[in-house]
């Protein structure tokens, strides 16, 4: 809001007693205002007292009278009657100072307090003696006020018109010739008071003069003028001053009684004088703003009827007894938090009814607030922004305006206004962290809740209402929306599909939180979702391989010592962690106690020496089990042929083969081929045994490749394992038929 303060005044003059709706002046023309914008700018008259008399016609821009103005009622005895007020326009704000002078019309005639008075004059009064008369009162001012007095013609009395210290005119009767009570003891004259108005008005009073017997000495006041001072907040009964008169006569002619004269000039029931002591005291409440002094006429009358007069001038001393008054004439709430520096919040009128320094005011507000007061015109102040506002830091203010005057001691007052700060969308949503982590068990049901993201926006209303969404990105070549979706209101993230740890171990998504402001603000956070493994994969035996129910046959010499490595079971588990930890155990054996399996390495070894009583055909079942909950397992079956010679071994292998339910023709032909070369092979073995008999204690290595064997259709393969000690090497060579995978032989 921009405030325009117009220095200077527009002044109009109108006579009093004008009828309502009478024309005062054209505000629109005189202030150069746009007539069409007067209603929309909320044009109005602002005044503490005087807005009851005037209003603005919004159609014509004319200032008119709301109710009839009686100047004597509004301004009382003030010589000049000016009614000030302000014309305030908003958006943009303008303040214009207007003064309307109420011109007096001669609507009041001079009047006396009584239609008839009695004046007692001693016959001994000397020519030139003066007798004060009660003056007439005319509430009009200027030329319409009391102008002069006149007295009906007579040979004894004349009239002398004088002006008092207060500017008022009063009359004294002057004795022109000596009186003789015995000739005539009373007289009657007419006193006329006239003003200078047009038409001229007048008032009369009949004066009845009674001639008293001789009282040679009138009372005499010690002072002609008494002066006193009273504070305006003086309490009723406060002593003012004591007047004193003396009389040189004796007896009743020396008895003096004091009283007020010109009682019409006194405010009713304000002062009183003790008729005996002459003590003047206060009996009413003083109003410094109505009268700054009082001119009181006091008369002293002796028992013989002689009267003399003096004046008591009471000056009213202003005291600081009025608190500063704070009036809010315009106020805007709420204001946006992005309001520019100098935005007008309120217009205040701060004034004090006291005078002088007691009526000079100063005002302050709490400097910790982002506001300040600026003085404008005629005790008007504007409350404006002084620093940027932040609703999120302070959404509302209780602004207290303190006003003090310059009296001693100063008086204070305050007024509090409640100001709300309206929100703008100046804060983006914020997550607690920029990176979140969550975990979900694989094989979860689609639609299950995974995680909840929450963001906070310190703004209010629509500016703080958040909606959540997934940033359109891809993960491993697939859009993230194919994996998860998010509830836009709650921020709960749900799965779209069932996860498989063996295919997807983790997923990274970007979550966006956006408010509903204009324009909307947003922020992102990253969520890493880790898929937790379940024990959903049984161990898979890699070696020995078994297809179509076939079993592998191993040859073990009878001379094999304890710890002889027969075979090694190799298995893997597609799960991870403890779900993939494998253990091996011998589930079933033809000869219990002859073989054992390494718990962790799967090595099948002999436990003891092979005895002659041990059967030559052994069938072993090895169980492979993971460490999941519940555990999953697999088993492998292989045969062991115990023999010290190759033909015997082949015979055993042939026996095992005959027991196989899945024997093929290729196996049959292979056995025939092997038997045909057995003689040559046996000869070679005998030769080797005879050469190594002294050195060899067990059949540690069977190397078919070193023997001179006829070529057998198929292919050769070898498999070597290191023992648990990492020292002894066991080597196996086996051949497979090139066109069949149904049988396996070492």
Characterization of the model:
There is one protein chain. By secondary structure, the protein is mostly beta strands. It folds into five domains: 3-103, Cadherins (Immunoglobulin-like), CATH 2.60.40; 116-317, Immunoglobulin-like, CATH 2.60.40; 325-422, Sandwich (Immunoglobulin-like); 430-532, Cadherins (Immunoglobulin-like, Sandwich), CATH 2.60.40.60; 540-736, Sandwich (Immunoglobulin-like). Helices cover 7% and strands 43% of the residues. The chain has five helices and 53 strands. The strands form 17 sheets. It has a four-stranded mixed sheet with strand order 1-7-6-3, with no helix packed on it. Strand 30 and strand 31 form a beta hairpin. Helix 3 (646-659) runs antiparallel to helix 4. The protein starts with a strand and ends in a 10-residue tail after the last strand.
Map the helices and strands.
Layout: E1 3-15, E2 23-26, H1 27-30, E3 44-46, E4 54-57, E5 62-65, H2 71-75, E6 82-89, E7 93-103, E8 116-122, E9 130-132, E10 146-151, E11 157-163, E12 169-175, E13 186-195, E14 202-212, E15 220-221, E16 225-231, E17 239-242, E18 245-246, E19 257-261, E20 271-273, E21 279-282, E22 293-301, E23 307-317, E24 325-331, E25 335-336, E26 344-351, E27 361-365, E28 371-375, E29 380-385, E30 396-405, E31 412-422, E32 430-431, E33 435-441, E34 449-452, E35 455-456, E36 466-470, E37 474-475, E38 478-479, E39 484-486, E40 492-495, E41 506-515, E42 522-532, E43 540-543, E44 552-556, E45 565-568, E46 570-572, E47 582-589, E48 595-597, E49 603-606, E50 617-626, E51 633-642, H3 646-659, H4 665-676, H5 678-692, E52 715-722, E53 729-736
Parallel strand pairs: 1-7, 8-14, 16-23, 25-31, 33-42, 44-51
Antiparallel strand pairs: 2-5, 3-6, 4-5, 6-7, 9-12, 10-13, 11-12, 13-14, 15-18, 17-21, 19-22, 20-21, 22-23, 24-26, 26-29, 27-30, 28-29, 30-31, 32-35, 34-40, 36-41, 37-38, 39-40, 41-42, 43-46, 45-49, 47-50, 48-49, 50-51, 52-53
Helix pairs in contact: 3-4
